Amino acid sequence: MLNKRTKLREREREREREKERERERERERERERHVWKITNDQKKRFAVRERQPYRIK
To answer: If we measure between CA atoms, which residue out of 54, 30, 50 comes closest to residue 40?
Structure first.
């Protein structure tokens, strides 16, 4: 009986850890997207300011 409870608790903890890892991955993806947005915005501003042949479609 005790052993079953500990196994269940261990499984529950493992699920929690997995959820936390998934959240961390999602945060990392969000950071990457955010960086991309900033760089694209800077590219657009640069292209307009300098009259570069670079165009955003």
So the answer is: 54
pLDDT in tens, the chain (57 residues): 778 889 999 999 999 999 999 999 999 888 777 666 666 767 777 666 555 555 555
Q: How many CB atoms are located within 10 Å of the residue 43 CB? A: 13
The label of the residue with tokens 């499984």 reads 11
Q: Which residues have C-beta within 8 Å of that of residue 47, sequence separation ≥ 6?
A: 54, 55, 56
